[in-house]
User: What shape does this take?
Amino acid sequence: MNYQSEDAEIIGKVLQKYSTVGQLPAMPLIGVRAMVEEKFFIEVDAEAVVNGDG
Assistant: This one.
């Protein structure tokens, strides 16, 4: 909650600090200001595809 686009740079720097060089994790950022009703949620499904080169 309360994600601001300006936070992306800070988040990126933290990921770089604690991740292996060249192997950053996927970083989908979704900002939602409000829902029609507070009881609504957002569900995000994702699939990771990893090649065997690494």
Summary: Residues 7-18 form the longest helix (12 residues). Residues 1-54 form one domain.
